[in-house]
Design brief:
By secondary structure, this protein is an alpha+beta fold. It contains 13 helices and 15 strands. It binds adenosine-5'-triphosphate and magnesium ion.
């Protein structure tokens, strides 16, 4: 890992709609103010602004303009850039490789592989690098799984840089976000996120997540495509990346922004007042080219999360993407049941109505107009989804290979008693 002089800066590259090669979009610079707090600055390049096909990195917060944008949020890293940066899992690998914890934000941007979510890239040269196409393949999954196990168990990685195996394992790092062990693999001319089971998982996450995607589909939700692949006795979930499309010249890339960025929120629980489906749907209606489809779709996802006790539905688990110029809600991903102890009250990660984060039918229905739904429509959707979840979760889980024992473990997640708890008159 090289050290850079202060101020720290890098170039931001983008693959424009319909293209497969990076062009330089602008320059990002990370300084500290007098009290030592990070301040990020971004400026679009003049030649980028002069392009007819230029698109903004973020149409709400980084509109095409000659001005210098400034932010103090997210350690000075604009949401659109942070969304392209590795998260807990990818950072762990970079730290492990660097041999030290807690690198600075620019290190994470610059030293993570070019498989990041969305259309952006980062580098120290004003000209972008030539595209690399050496993705891991599904055939490498066994080795990637071994690598993931070593990281989880905090075992040292092979140190000999000449060792072929070590090289392969290093490349198993990923810029994709999230906390669970994962890698990006190419399979049948498509890119997939491989999500590995952990040895200490209480149930088979890969198969359960696949079953939840199927259950969401049965509830009328647009889901990411997925499949299970097994290495020995270990299952891995492959989720098809919806931000990449292979063409003759390479991969086209869709821009992608998380709900965290749309909400202009910090990642911390202290900033939770901004974590809200009700606020999110307002932003979604502003950014989406099809708000009448996307707003009710978000309503369904919020209800689904409540119905399967997916209390880890934090704002990085929702995103918007732009394949061309238009932005749309992305397909649904990362749907996992949770088993909170309380049978009376479970809270989603985002506020979902007048009663805050309470995963209760009345609460979910309390702001339905903002999701562009009439009261009766919203009630109809919720009732049908509730019935589908009750009737279908078990048969779908079994069909997707979730064992009866695992079904027992997760059974308390579905349509929990508090969802329809009679509430005292206020
Ligand atoms: N199908 C997909 N196509 C493109 N990007 C995706 C897809 N699925 C997930 N992502 C991106 O990858 C990130 C990590 O994926 P995911 O949320 O499934 O991982 P995770 O480790 O389970 O997350 P968490 O930390 O929330 O448990 C997401 O936040 C999103 O930015
Ligand atoms: Mg996630």
């Amino acid at each position: 890992m090289t050290s850079r002089n202060n101020p720290q800066e890098c170039f931001v590259y983008i693959v424009l709609p319909g293209e497969t090669k990076f062009v330089t979009a602008g320059r990002f610079r990370l300084d500290k103010n007098r009290s030592g707090a990070p301040v990020g600055r971004y400026v679009y390049g003049k030649s980028y602004l002069a392009r007819n096909e230029a698109v903004p990195l973020d149409p709400l917060n980084l509109k095409l303009s000659t001005k210098t944008y400034e932010t103090r949020q997210l350690k000075g890293v604009f949401g659109a850039l942070r969304d392209a940066s590795p998260d807990h899992w990818g950072r762990l690998i970079i730290e492990k490789r660097a041999g030290k914890p807690q690198l600075d934000e620019l290190d994470y941007l610059l030293y993570s592989p070019d498989d990041r979510a969305g259309a952006l890239g980062f580098g120290l040269n004003s000209e972008p690098p030539a595209p690399k196409r050496n993705f891991n393949r599904t055939i490498d999954l066994a080795r990637l799984q071994e690598f993931a196990d070593r990281i989880v168990e905090d075992e040292p990685l092979p140190q000999d840089p000449d060792a072929e195996q070590a090289q392969d394992l290093m490349e198993g790092g990923t810029s994709m976000g999230g906390a669970r062990p994962k890698a990006v693999v190419e399979h049948e001319d498509t890119l997939w996120i491989a999500k590995f089971n952990r040895k200490d998982d209480k149930y088979n996450h890969a198969r359960t997540e696949r079953a939840m995607l199927k259950l969401a589909h049965a509830c009328g939700i647009q889901i990411a495509e997925s499949k299970i692949t097994s290495i020995g006795d270990r299952d891995t979930l492959l989720v098809r990346r919806f931000d990449r499309e292979k063409t003759k010249t390479g991969y086209q890339r869709a821009r992608m922004l998380s709900a965290l960025t749309l909400l202009r929120s910090e990642d911390t629980h202290q900033d939770r007042t901004k974590w809200s489906y009700v606020l999110l749907v307002e932003e979604l209606r502003r950014i989406s080219a099809k708000p009448k489809i996307d707003a009710p779709e978000l309503f369904k996802r919020m209800c689904f999360n409540a119905l399967i006790s997916n209390t880890d539905d934090h704002p990085r688990n929702h995103a918007v993407i732009a394949t061309g110029k238009d932005w749309r809600l992305s397909r649904a991903y990362d749907l996992t049941p949770d088993m909170p102890v309380s049978l009376e009250r479970r809270d989603l990660a985002l506020e979902c109505g007048d009663m805050g984060r309470y995963a209760h039918a009345n609460n979910l229905l309390s702001q339905s107009a903002r999701f562009l739904l009439k009261d009766e429509e919203a009630q109809g959707i919720l009732n049908t989804m509730e019935q589908t979840v009750k009737d279908q979760w078990h048969p779908i889980a079994r069909k997707e290979g979730v064992s009866e024992k695992d079904c027992e473990t997760i059974s308390g997640a579905f349509a929990y008693p508090g969802f329809r708890l009679e509430l005292a008159a206020r």
